[in-house]
Every structure is written in C-alpha cells, then in structure tokens.
TrEMBL record, chains A, B, C, D, E, F, G, H:
InterPro entries: Hydrolase_YcaC-like, Isochorismatase-like_dom, Isochorismatase-like_sf, YcaC. Keywords: Hydrolase. PANTHER family: HYDROLASE YCAC-RELATED. Signal peptide: none annotated. Transmembrane segments: none annotated. Residues 14-165 form the Isochorismatase-like domain. One of its GO terms (molecular function) is hydrolase activity. This is Putative hydrolase. Pfam families: Isochorismatase (PF00857). SUPFAM superfamilies: Isochorismatase-like hydrolases (SSF52499).
Length: 207, 207, 207, 207, 207, 207, 207, 207
C-alpha cells in the first residue's frame, strides 16, 4: 500500500535538532565536514527563515559530547532548549515531548547526530504516536554508510519520509513569488553552485 | 502488498520534462556531465521516436536558472511549453495540469532537475490523483547521492516506479520487429557500446 | 505487510537464463568482467549440479547481440533453448512461457543481461501470473549502478526476492551432509577464497 | 502499511552469533578487516555487558571453515554453543531452535558470516514463526556490496529490522544514568573517536 | 633534475591515433563509455581545428578487434592511415614511422587503446629516438586503474608528459583572440558545462 | 637527484589566484562545491592574514566565464588585478608578469581553475624562468581526477612542489607563539573539525 | 633524467613468482579475488607460453602461510622451486639468487604477495646489483591501496618499471604474426571481453 | 637517476612519532578510525619489539590539540618526550633535534598527524641534513586524499622513501628464524586476517 503524499505545510511544521554537539560531531564520517557543517547551518537558516518553531536538545553537554554548536545556539536564542540529563532517546524526556506538543504542529522535521540513535529513536517514537515524520537526511550524520543505510531503512519502514534541506525549503516555500529574494539568499548562502549562477547572472544583467 | 505490474503502453504515455535549464544543470553532480547530457537527450529522442505527447516546463527562465536547454526546445517545437511564473511544484501550475490532462494519458514518465524537487513534487502530486508515475532516474539529476536516494525513497514509497531511459524504450517497443532500424538507431546514438557492436557486426557482415 | 518466507525448494525450481550473449555482455559495466563471468558460470554450474530444469533464451542471435556464450550452450545441451525472433520481454514469447510451464515448477530463478530489461520484464510478468520469482542479482548485469538499483527497486516492489548465486546454492542444498564433496567443489571452483581455505586445510590435514 | 516500532527491551532480547569462524572470515570483503573485527567484538562485549542470553553456533568447525574465533569462545564460556553437523540454516538444527526457545525471549539480535546465508536464513525462519528479528548489520559480513544489499533487501521485506551494534547498545541502555561508566567504557573500547573525546575531556577536566 | 617546459607549438605537432577500433573499445573500462567517446572525438575535432597532421593506425582490422571507429575515419579522409598487418607496437611498422617522419614535426600527441600497449609502446619508442611525447590521457583507455597507472608511471619515467585534450587545445591556441568562436565551438561541443554557460550567457545578453 | 627543501618564507612569497570566476567554477568537479569554496576562501584568508602580496587575474570576465568571485574581489581591494584580454596562459600577459616581478618575491603560490590550464601553464612558465613554484592543490579545481593527476604529474616533473592551504599556512607561520589567536581563528573558520575541538575545549576550560 | 626504454626481450627474461601461497592470499584486499586469481594464472600461462624460465619460491609453506597455490605448482613441474626456510626477502636466500643467475637472464619479471614485502624487497635487491626489474603490478597483491602505492613509489624511485601481465605479453610477442592463435588463446582465456569479441566474430564469420 | 636501495637496519633506526594527540586525531579522515588506530599502535608495538629508540613529541598538549594518546605514552615510559611549546615543524625544536642526534641513528622512521605538516616538515628538514628518511604512510593521517597525495609527492621528490608498518617490520626482521613467535604475535595482534590464518592452522595442527 503506497504512503499518501503528506506535503509539508509551513503552518504545521516543527523542527527538532537533536545532539548537534561539538564533541559528537567528530563521530560523523558519512559526510565531508565542510559539507555537513553547511547542511546543518542551512537547516538552521531555513527554520529561521520560515519561522518554524524549533526545539534544540543535547545529551550530556558537560561531558565529552561537548556543547551544542555555538552557531545553532546563537541562531535560536528563544527556542526551547532541552539539555537531557541522561535519556538517549529524546522522546523519553518529558520536557522534550512537552515542548513538541506545545508547538501544536503535526509535521516534524528531525535531524541530528548520530542518525541511527539521536534521529531514529525519536523519529520512531513520534511515528508511533501519530506524528508525520520527515527525516532531514543531509543534516543528520553518522559513522559510515552501513550505519546510515540501516537507520534509513528502519525509519522508512516505520513510515518516516526522507527529505533533504533543499527539498524541505522548496516544499515549504511553494512559490518563488512569495519571496524571491529571501529564498534566493538562503540558496546563495548554502549552495555554492547557485551562488555562482546568481553572480554570473547579476554581472551580465547589470551591464 | 506487492505493486501490480503496470506496463508502459505507448498509447497511454505522456512525458513530462521538468526544468532541464542551462543554469540549473550546473547543480547536477550525481552524474558525470557527458553521461547526463546523453541521458536527457536520449529521453528526448525516444519521446519523439515513439510519438509520445511531451510537456516541457521551466522555472524562472529569465533569471539565473537559465533557459531550457536549446536541444530540447528544438526537438519539440510543437509541444506544450509551460514556463512557470513561480510555482516550484509544476503540479501547482494550472496550465501544466491542464496540459497533462489534455494528453488523455494515464501513465506519466517524469524526469527533471533537481530530482528531489522538480521531479519528486509533481510525481507525488500526480500519484495522489491517480496517475501511474514512472520516474526516469537517469535523466533526472541532483546534488549528490544522499539527495538522490532520499528522493527515490520518498517517491517509491508513494507508489512511483523507477525506470531508466533504456528500459522505457524497451518496454514501449515490445518487439524488435516493430521497427528494427528505428530502435537500433536510437540505441546506436546514445549507447557507445551498442554502436560499437553494430559497427563491428556491419564490418564483418559486409565482407 | 511483510512478505512470507518463500524458501527455495529444489523440487520446485526452474532456472531462466536470459540473453547472456557475447555482444550484449559488452554492455555490462556494473561488474568487473572477471567477476561477472565467474558469477554467470557459477549459476550455470549450480543449475546443473542440482539438476534444475533450465531454460535458455536469446534475443537476435544473428545480429550484433551475438550468440549465447558458448560455455552455457555447452553446459545445457538438452535444455530448452528459445531464440526469440523479436520479443524483448521473453515472457511475450509463447514458446518461452510454454517451456516454463512445462517444467511444472512454481519458483523461478531469473538472471540475465541487462537487468532492467531482460531480467525485470519477465520477472514482472511471471510475478503477475503468480510465480515466486527470485532474481539472481550477481549473475545479472547492466550499464551502471543507477540502472541496477532502479531495476532492483521495481522488481522488489512487485514482489520479487533478491538473491545471489551463493545464497541460492546454500538454500537449495540445505545440509552439507547431503553431499559435502559436490557442494565443496562448486564453491572451490567459483570462490577463490574458499578454494584457498580448502587447499590450506588439505595441506595441513594430510601431514 | 508501516511496521510498528518494536523497541529493544533488555529483558526480552537474545543474541545469536552465527558462524564467526576463522576460515569463513576470510570470505568477508564488504568490510575492512580491522573494522569488522572491532564490530564483532563490540557486539560480543555489549551482549556480555547487558547480560543478554547468547547462543553461538558454527558450521563444520573441523573443516576448512575453521573454529569459532577464540575471543568469542572465551567471552561466553557458559553460553549455549551449537556446532552444527551439517545444516546450513541454523534454524534447521533442532538444538539451536531449542536453545533459542529456552531463552524465553521474543526479540532476536542476529549477526553472522556470511550475511545472505548464515544471517538471512535463520532470520527468515525466525520471522516466519513470529519472532521480532533485528539484524546487526555491521557485525555481519559477506563477499561484496551486491550480496549484502540483496540480503538486506530480502530480510527487510520479510519484516526484519536493520540495526548496528551502536544503535543496539543505545536502545538497550535507554538512559546514560543507568550506568555512565559502563556504557562509556564499551564505547571507548570500540569507537576510537569516542575514546579520543573522552581522553581529551579527561585531560582538560583534571587540570 | 626537472624536465624543462616543452610547450606545444601548433607548427610542430603531429597527432597519432592508435587502435581506436570498435572491438577494442569494449576493453576500455577505466572511463565511462559516454565520456570516453566524447574525449576521443574531442581530440579528433581539435586535431582538425588546428590543422594538425594526423596519423591513424589499426591492428588487425579484419579480425575481432574491429574497424577504426567510423567517426574518426570520416573526419580524416586524407590522413595517413596505416592498418598494421601484425606489429603490436606501431613504431615497429616502417610505414608508420615513415608517416611520422614525413610530417616533419617533433612534438607528438599520442592517444589510443589500450593505454599500456598501443599508447605506451610507441610513446617509449618515440622518446627513445628523440621526439617530445605528450600522452593525451583522457583519450586513451584501458582495462582498469591499475593498468592505467602502471602505464602512466612507465611513460612518465621515460620522459613523456601527460596532458588531456582540453589542456592540449588551450596550449595550442595560446590566445582566445586568435579565434574566439572557433575555440568556443570546440568547447561547447565537448564540454556540457561550458555549453550551458554559453547558453545561459547568450540568453541574458540577447535581452 | 632529490629536490632540495625549499621552505616557504613569508618574506619571499607572492600569491597568484588565477581565474576563480563564477562561470568557470561550474567546470570544477574533482571537489565537492562546499569543500572547494571553503578551500579557495581559506587560501584568500591566509594570504591576507600573512600579508602576502596577491595578484588576481581573470580570463574574459565579460563572457560566459563570469566575473571573479565577489568574495575574493572584496578581500583584496588593493591587489593587482589583471583581467586578461585573451591570453590563456597568464604568464603570456605582460602586465601579469610585471606584477609578479614587482612583488620582488621568488616563491610563488599558485592556485586556479582549471588546474591543467590556468594553474599548470603559468606554473611551468614561472619554473622555466627560475621561480620556486608551489601549487596549492586543494584550491585548484578541474574536470575530474584524470585531468587533475595529469596536471599534477606534468607540474611535478617540471619542478613544482604540491602543497595544500593548511600546509602553506603552517609552513609560513612556523611557530604558534607568533600569534596563537590569529592562526587559530584561520583554522577555526575553515576546518570544522578544528572549530569543534576549540569549542569543546573552551566549554570545559571555562568551567 | 629520463629512464631509457628497456624493452622486454623474450630471450632475456626470467619470471620470479614470490609467495603466491594459499594462506597469504587471504591478505590480498587491493584486488577482487576473482580478478586477482585470473591475473596470477594469466601470468603463469604467459610464462609458460613464451617458455620463460620461471622460479617459484615460498615462505614457510608448512605454517599458516599455506602451500603454493596448486595451479602454479602444476603448471611448472620442472621449474626451480625454492621453499625459503625463513628469509623474508627472497634475495637473501642463496639458492634463490643462484637460480636467478642460472637462468642467465638480465630482465626480471617479479610478482608476488604481498607487494611491499615479497615483491619490493627482491625487486630492490635485484636493482641494486644491476638487473632490469619489471614489476607485474596486477599479479601482485597487498592489504590496501595505501600499502600498494607506497610500494609502487619505493620501487619506481629505485628504478623498477611497472607493467601488467597484458602489457608484458604484448611486449614479448612483438607481432601477432608470430603466432596469432597462441596469443589469441591466452587472451581469450584471461580477458572475458576479448573472449566475447572472438566469439561474436567467429559467429558472424562462420556464416 | 634511481635512488639506491637504502635498507632498514635495526641497529641504525630511530622512530619519530609526531603529534598523535587525542584532539588532532579527529582531523584524520583519509583512514577509517579503526584501521588508523590499529596502524599507529602496530607501529608502536614494532618499535618496542625491535627495541628501536623512539622519540615522542606533541604540539600544544594543553590546548584543543589534546594530550598524546595514552596508549603510546604508556608504551614508551622511558622514551624521549618533547612537548613543543610552539614550533610547528618538530625539527625547529632544538630539544627534538638533540634527541634525534642522541640516538646516533641515521635512518629515521617518521609518522604523525597530519601528514603534510607534522610528518612532512621534519621529514624534509631531516633529509636536508643528510638523514635517510622513511615515512610510515599508514600510521600518518590527514584530512583527505588530496592532502595526502600532495604530501607524499613533496616528500618523495625530496628523497624520502614511503613504507608501511608491515613492510618496516619485515625489513627489520630479515628472517623469520630470528624469532618466529615474536613476529607472529606482532602480526596476529594487528592483522586480523593473519590472526585467522594462525588460529585456523593451530586448530588443525593440534588435532
């Protein structure tokens, strides 16, 4: 039986950023570090651009896992921030679930480190209680391709949809005319090839 | 539950070519450029060879995305051509949907740039309203393998079938005897190994 | 809904070898040629070893596609051999379907060149009429990984099971005690690492 | 229909280690040997750490397949150990099935060599009789990526869940506070990057 | 001791195309077929564009190696064409050496199939008698990367310079102002990304 | 004969940035775009940080090649900027050579797009007249690995040394004590893993 | 200074096969096993075909390294066979050096397992005393690409030439007319693509 | 001119381990972490086994770079340990050079993190003053393959020899009979495939 097309609706989306911590990031080896940093910050930027309620959570900030990456912390000064005292699955933390419920949204975008644990566990838990779950695959990192594909498989079979930050931005925006400049800036800041297109175009057009 | 075998039927197929624009093509990095160009033109050639109604659409032709690649434009001078004023999902454009409906076909072959947006969004929309959707994977390009596989996964789960241009040509043609020379020419023009086989064969046979 | 475990039963299996022709093999680029040759011959050897009814078919033997590889022809002198006059999908050939029916078997092992056409089309057709279809993935070759994965996806969604020749041999044999030497010889001839293990073992044991 | 979230429960889990034998390990080429050795021993360590009932089995220990790797044998001196006299599918061995039943557990973690046979066959058999099966993909090795993905596909379609040893450990542990040091030691011993994080942290903290 | 910079001089260059035959091309597996075909034809086009004396040679045209690829034959109707009766090293053929000498050029561009034989042997022979040899690496194909790198190493150590067709064209042309359109057309025909740049540019400029 | 160790000396180094133009960058496919952008900007930052005389040059800015990337233009407002009217080898442009001479430096760091032309040609020319040439390999991009390695080979054989931006920065700086914070900031801005180390360290240290 | 072209001369070549033992072969992971087995046997076949004096040697046959692979032993029943009692570098064994000298040849083809030890050590020793050394790279295996390239680099710098079995055969044979059928059989037995060409050719020609 | 064969002599070798620090190791991405950890510890073990004088050095231990990995510190309690206060090139530190001189050895084995800086700089400096330098490539890590190959190239051109830990151990040991068990233990501890061979052998032999 095919999954129906659950389309992202900017009025019904919340973003969960799970354990993007300075120590844990050294475990991520299924992406080049330059690309992964860019993808995570792009997701942060789009959450901010679309004004999506965003929840940040960390695991053991005070230990080797390290603090939340400062850029994200700076970007969401007023967001719910749930430093978990020990629960590995963020969904086992009552404050976290309460924060999700408080958004009143039904569609959850989840990204985190590492994919098969910090992303997969809350994704599976959220699916089990009826949320629509969209995993942002390119802002979620893990040890290698075997762990990644095992995680994708488990989440997909449970009903999650796999998306990437660019697809998310496009599905939320719907129509360029809603704000050409805003979306263009987002892409220019995070897609070098797009930035080049824009700069080439601007050079010729301005003549 | 297994999907039933929906077999391509040349009397019931329309082709949707979405956003193969000269600027956007620089974003495609999951294929070598020589191969991708060949695959897109092969799909154009087969659409023409089988006389399939073909719909071309672009996004923001006048901006950095650039115009439709001239070869495709030249190949389908009489095709429906829908330059979208802003809708990212082509299916959100009424003229586009009308053009699809006007073909009277139920099976849609979709290819475009980039896969997770320009292909996936109309594919999901078309599936939702009952079309049989076949994604031509090797004529659809995107940023990298993570975005590709995320897009394939989302479309497959929603009921799309993944095919490639060679498979499409073979399933449409059914029997070499329908036109040996025509199909052979299509393959010779787009599969160098096949061309070599034919040239080797011709050399020996003609002696 | 999970697929039930349909286990290969040597009394209920037929093997379909589709279009392993000397010309078409030059199209196969998702396997190294040494490995692919070995896999195809291993499948031939196991069909013979287990006494499975085997059907050979080719497409346009007299043209550039070239003849059936001589090793397979020699290995199955009495097998049904259906040179198709033009049908691309072997299942569209009545003689081929009749030959399959004549085996009286319900489980079909299919391998061929190229995967998305010569394997996928008869696999989908056979599934549609109720056969249990097992694709021998490593004895089936195609242009590249995009065509391979598109074909695997389409066949899997339709109900096919993906296996490899080694798995097939093991599932058919069930128990080493049925014939240690026979199975060992099959593995020694087609798995260099296994051959090395046996030779090392024999050297020490014989002292 | 999405699979429900069956969550690992340390009171309901048994571990099946199938055919990790010194000879057979030379067949494993889809992992680097250093990494694979580490993954298998990590799974052994976690089974021991969580006190999970563990069943070891081998195929033809006295022949070229070689003995069980000594580290595993040493680690589970009191575990059920079933050297199979010939059955390829461990589930065809009555003692093995009895040992599984004797654990009284419903959730089975399975790993072994090679994936498409020694893991897939008992996984499919166990699913068929109602167990929840979790394949530990990174402690299961095989010839190459084609055999791996064919095996993953077959098992997934039949209802198995794909996990990796790190995910298993995290899902079983649930909360770091249950034993910070124990889990930390497990990770430090088997994840070099984590060990480095801990050592860096300790160095600064102790000043 | 560093090699001095021997710069290509269009008045002193001859091109040797060795054994680009329809059969032998099926041996080439270190390049994707679409890309390799493009590279070879690009080299042919540049030889023609710069009016470089070009020598074509083949090995056993009448046997399985097959005829020279027809496109090259058509492109150089008046070029020296030396079908060798048996010599594997083209430099062992007196007519071939005479043809090279007859050009009066000192700088030789060599490309062919397969790299370690048809290219390396005449390259080494030509170096030994004092020619400056430039191997066009991307128009020379072979079995795999081990054979390629072994061949590159042997030729480089003997004094050959490794270049690619694009570098050759640029070093011969020296200055765009010599013929902007001609060079631009060459690049547009053989570099899809460059063609896209030109088409995008033309679209904006023409407004 | 081994090359002597010519060590970078910040008082004797000039930087040549050749053709990093918005159009030409779409040709670069031997690096992921995120990484390549980062590498080029890192080289710009280090040139600025060490106060190295820097020369910028472009080829046909007004055509499809596009303008210099704006970030570099902004970073070096007072640098020599030589838009070449047509010369492909920047060293064929008298103004460029004059600008190099005017720096009075003997050690040249060269980076550009594409490696085998815009980098290799001036590198070979500069070597021929006695400069010490250091190619910054990771800030120089090209079509693919075959063109890259051919270019590296040709330049190395002629006496160039291959370095990367990180090695250049370290060899110029010599001793962290010269300015810990400055070098640390450079690395933090362009090496995500280093940034993480610093942030983790800062978090613990500040407690 | 460029190396002169030392061309293989069948009257002046000896072959050294070092430590192709059934146990040691399990260490080889820079080649697929099917391909490596084929390459080693191809080298054996060509040595036999050209009647080259061949010396076989092993290290610790009676221990875990295992015996010489039986195929080679069978192929050279009368060859010098030097089971070394302990020397790791075969050149440290007086009998081995004596056997090499006894051939009276100056050009040595060396292949073995593992490349950086069993091949590199005798290669370096032979070079040091004036032999011309040709490493058969594709019949020499090792742990991974880092060890391979380190070994190639060390041997090349010391004066060895890198060749592959196919290049060796071609350089020894010089001219197809010396024996078309013999060389063709060698290639047909070890190059599946060549075999296919021959079979296709034969099929058409015989009509 | 070929480099002469400088053979490692255990009476004339010192080992330099440069900056294997817990923080810096997170920068290493040209090796899988499990494999790199194994390689570094293998080098430590062989230095200890052969009783080679070993010098350890670190850069900024108290900052983000982190302390020397504890295993190495523990393994060489009495070795010279030079924590550098700021010099990036260890050879710029007088104590380090003095420690090297104090060993009285002429052959230096160098490994470290990252290859193009911590290894290449002292390697080039040591070569410049007449040492024989052997880079242990697989115990030296860096950001990616571009930085690795640039570093290898620069060091090789300056006269360094590239080796790996296994080759080093074999060249130092010369003859198994010097201590079969000791060398065997070293290999068994760091080469899983070798350990398996030994365990298989022991199992059969002990019967």
């Amino acid at each position: 039986m095919a999954k129906p097309y659950v389309r992202l609706d900017r009025d019904n989306v919340a973003v969960l950023l799970v354990d993007h911590q300075t120590g844990l990031l050294s475990l991520v080896r299924d992406f080049d570090p330059d690309k992964f940093k860019n993808n995570v910050l792009a997701l942060g930027d789009l959450a901010q651009y679309f004004g999506l309620p965003t929840i940040l959570t960390t695991s053991f900030e005070d230990g080797p896992n390290g603090p939340l990456v400062p850029e994200l912390k700076a970007q969401f000064p007023d967001a719910a921030f749930i430093p978990r005292p020990g629960q590995i699955n963020a969904w086992d933390n009552e404050d976290f679930v309460a924060a999700v419920k408080a958004t009143g949204k039904k569609q959850l975008l989840i990204a985190g480190v590492v994919t098969e644990v910090c992303v997969a566990f809350p994704a599976l838990s959220a699916l089990a209680v009826g949320y629509d779950v969209f995993v942002v695959t390119d802002a979620s990192g893990t040890f290698n391709e075997v762990t990644r594909h095992s995680a994708w498989n488990r989440m997909t079979e449970a009903g999650a949809q796999l998306m990437t930050w660019f697809g998310v931005a496009c599905e939320l925006h719907r129509d360029w005319r809603n704000d050409v400049e805003g979306l263009g800036t987002l892409f220019s800041n995070h897609i070098p090839d797009y930035r080049n297109l824009m700069n080439s175009y601007a050079a010729v057009s301005s003549r």
